[in-house]
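Design review, sub-item: ligand-bound model
Attendees: FS, YL, KQ
YL presented the inputs for the flavin-adenine dinucleotide complex:
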Amino acid sequence: SVSVVLFTSDLRLHDHPPLRAALDGTDGTVPLFVRDTAVDAAGFAAPNRLAFLADCLRDLDAGLRERGGRLVLRRGDLVEQVCRVVTEADADEVHMASDVSAHAQRREERLRRALEAEGVRLHVHDTVTTAVAPGAVTPASSDHFAVFTPYLRRWADHRMRDPLGAPRTVRVPDGVGSEPLPGRSTLSGLSEGLATGGEKEGRRRLTAWLRDGVAAYADRHDDLAGDATSRLSPHLHFGTLSPVELVHRARRAGGAGAEAFVRQLAWRDFHRQVLAARPAAATADYRTRGDRWRPDREAERDIAAWREGRTGYPIVDAAMRQLRHEGWMHNRGRLLTASFLAKTLYVDWRVGARHFLDLLVDGDLTNNQLNWQWMAGTGTDTRPNRVLNPVLQAKRYDPEGRYVRRWVPELAEVPRAMVHEPWRLGDDDRGALGYPAPVVELAEGLDRFKRARGP
Ligand code: FAD
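KQ shared the predicted structure:
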């Protein structure tokens, strides 16, 4: 018999249950990736992510070739393409990972029906893209946890499966053609400092992180200039690393840093179980707060300043410029730029989420939309009206101003005491900087938000 393993957000060979199952007891296996045109049409084909994806597909193909196999790439409607490959290979089963978005859930159902009509079974595997499957732990009264802390307790107690090694050999039947693999060279508009994709690079980073980085994570993860987080997010997004393996290896490393790191991986699973149960939360408010966000037309100038990193608040601008330059932003930066847009400027979180998805190499429907909702107060934050003050945040998380100076060269020479508040400089000094005045007074923004949200 022949099987097909359909790769989606799990572009790796290590710890891959669908691949393992597809290889078991078959005469041949077709490793397949479909560039789903529906995903592209929905606006997810951002250049930074396409570049990272191209790296991942080439690396996956190289890994398969080392084992005697190869990757088959198709483009089009995913269901049609899988059915075609099944016919060409005369396969009798298909293995894939479960996923949470509305599109993924609908697609899985369509695929199941289409394959069943041909007498082919679809096997959907959990714990490929999460450490704990959505729905594996639930509170007594609901189908998902809406608050993180009780979720974390149950998540941490849940028995996780052991990670699997990579297969030694993969035999692909003849006669199944592939489109050429994409490269980076045809893409334009890439961020200059974009990370490299692929499982090999992901594993190299993970090993280096567990050796050199994780121990200090608990103390240093919020240090903006220190850049002391793992930067594994694009690898988790594309699945070049397995969340199950990450949790195992971090727990084995032990210590407060590893514990804090594992907690972040639980956040990732938390958001996934929310979206699996409430797929509409990708676009609609998870909890409505009666917001009447400023109409885009009126707020247009502020939105443009925010996107370009010219709000006049150095820490906000530094983070927004890091996003453009690297296709990645530090978590503290994401929090405070999101708070600034949604609360201080009172602009619809969807406007900000869209901009992030246009640039982030780890841009992820679940993590992005639900973190935006969390910060906008329409999501799962139990203190939905908290507003982060960018000046206080800057003084706390960038005390020397190194992060600001790195990303906002206009402020490179401003003394430490004023680097986060350049408006306090004398008129002449300020004028010479070529750096904008604040788009809004913080107190004014806060008043507007309080009036709009009510108590
Ligand atoms: P580390 O601090 O090393 O954390 C390890 C891993 O834990 C991350 O790679 C990530 O997979 C997971 N993680 C950490 N924090 C969170 C969190 N708050 N929610 C869910 N998972 C988390 N993350 C994305 O992967 N894609 C996004 O599109 C995304 N958009 C965001 C938008 C906003 C407004 C905010 C506030 C956060 C967003 N995050 C997103 C979460 C977080 O900022 C990033 O995962 C993190 O900064 C990635 O850097 P790292 O890998 O060095 O993280």
